[in-house]
Amino acid sequence: MTTMAEQTTNFVDTLRVDNTGKTRKKLKHQLPLGTRIRRAWRLYVLLAPALVWVIIFCYWPMYGVQIAFRDFSPATGLTGGPWVGLKHFVRFVTSYQFELVLKNTVILHMYELLVAFPVPIILALVLNAVRQKRFSRAVQLVTYAPNFISVVVVVGIMVMLLDPQAGVVNNLMGIAGIPTVNFMGEPGWFRHLFVFSGVWQTAGFSAIIYLAALSSVPPELHEAARVDGATRLRRMWHIDLPAIMPIAVILLVLNIGNILSVGFEKVLLMQNPLNLDVSQVIGTYVYQVGLEASIPQYSYATAIGFFNSVVGVVLLLIVNQMARRIAKAGLF
Amino acid sequence: MRTQNRSEVITTQPADREAAVDTATVPRSVRRRGTPRRISEPRSDRLLNVVSVVVLSAIAVSIVYPFVFIASASLSDPGAVNSGEVVLWPIGVNLDAYQAILNYPEIVRGFLNSLLYSGAVMVLGTAIVIAGGYALSRSDLPGRNFFMVVFVITMLFSGGMIPLYLVAQSLGILNTAWAMILPSCMSVWQLIVTRTYFQVTVPKELLECSQLDGATDFSFFFRVVVPLAKPLIAVNCLLFAVASWNAYFNALIYLTDPNLYPLPLVMRNLLIENTYDPSKLTNIDPSQLAQAQQLAAKLKYALIIIACIPPLVAYPFVQKHFVKGMMLGSLKG
């Protein structure tokens, strides 16, 4: 377990190093580039499948984003159709759905960020502070488990447990004399259910990375603090928390960059005609107009998706800048 | 772990004894000649520990309870479930629901499809990631930084759902099993983690030494790197297989033929869209149809259990490789 967490930490470090690119030193006596490339041909063969995959499944679609600026026609495919400039973007921004969809997306993911970001940190701090190590490890194992099951199962569990007629929650509420609530159909419940089922599923696994950072805190710091009479709570605040701060900042930056795109598969599962007013987010809207509709509007849907990812990248850059200024840590 | 445990008990050296005596944290009763002394815990620490244990137990219960309830419900008498008598343990145990699942062709087919897709994604994906990750870990690969940038860019930008769909369309893989395998058989994140692992665990000296003995990059990769990377291979296999087993969205957009549906999509239709149709059960005579209808809810509970079993079983099995990987990592410093 720890290895994977360490690797994740290393991976975050890698991103930083590679993007500054200043850590590598140049060899003085190098063979000519051509010779080095020819000698390394076997390595290129090993790399080729991965490279081909990204070219086909990442760069080709990126190239295909141009249909957002064209009128797509099935006959000519990704690169055909007349250029229409920003027509589809204008149509989206001026459509009556725009405000609703954007508002839902932002509220849902802000809410999710506010809850789902601090919970793993607190969980890691508490797991690390408990003196019964065996108990703490058992709890860790249990909390990882939901991460390995499908969102379909998680939503399925919710549907079954919260069912107004036969669900156990409503049954128990009935015994306590509380009137039945149709949780999955009530628009007011949608956001809470979405966010807290997400925390239920991922908090344990997200805590791994913080636990790895905590395990690298030198015990001398805690010993010295104890000799000085610091309580556990104070040591958490002054030793443990600063130790995980850099990673927390990086993850926060990444999360905010993803704020408009993550989780729509689950939103789609939880969506029903009753809660559409709060559950229609950009991702599900793209799916609806682009693929589910009887007359798919590929160009329009791509434009919305493109709008989404541009906002995401811009947010990422802004937050990264802020993080670098304020916390002196950031992604790049 | 050892060092952490040791840090819980702080012993004072004889030379410090006089100074330590004055501190209020050392109770008189503990001061005995020759025995190491503990710094007694402040009361707030003990309270904090109790609170932490209680909170963690509550969290663990909140995670375990839904599974226990669903397992019980899938085994209980349908009437008892519907009337809310089943709260924790099953009432009137029987395996009807699981039998019904075996007789429901959609579910069985979905299960087999999912096995096929996850197996293929696991094998292909792990091979691609291990080979690519190793090549990227070599510092003598010309253009390595360029390739890293090529990969990292894809983590920040993406073409989006529709262009990817159109690419799949022009590849001609729509509505085939390939649509479930090819788009998910690589993960840039795992590639980079794998690369980092190789950078840490395969020392340069090992490569130079093998090259002196005449090993090519291929023979070094297959005879030295791959055997060394067993834990990493196991971890990658787990990640690919679980991700593929759990995914429903690709199936939703790429597949139209119900015969190709993987289990999560079948589950979505049955559990969430509520399209259960008892008349689809094979070898059931019409007189039992009413009873089969009653079985519907139970069948859903059983279906959830069935879908959870493979990933939750695979996880502890692979966990020993996580431990091995840790030991390997620490040996190499």
Concise overview:
The complex is a heterodimer of chains A (332) and B (333). By secondary structure, chain A is an all-alpha fold.
Pick out its properties.
heterodimer, A: 332 residues, mainly alpha, MetI-like fold, globular, B: 333 residues, 16 helices, disordered N terminus, disordered C terminus
Shape of chain B: globular
Distance between the termini of chain B: 17 Å
Main sheet makeup of chain B:
none
Strand content of chain A: under 5%
Low-confidence stretches of chain B: 1-24, 325-333
Radius of gyration of chain A: 25 Å
Oligomer: heterodimer
Which series of helices and strands of chain B comes N to C? HHHHHHHHHHHHHHHH
Q: In CATH terms, what is the fold-level topology of chain A?
A: MetI-like fold
* Name of the top-level CATH class of chain A: Mainly Alpha
Shape of chain A: globular
CATH class of the largest domain in chain B reads Mainly Alpha
| Mean pLDDT across all amino acids of chain A | 83
CATH superfamily of chain A: MetI-like
Which pair of protein chains has the largest interface, and what are the residue counts? A-B, 109 and 120 residues
| CATH-scheme architecture of the largest domain in chain B | Orthogonal Bundle
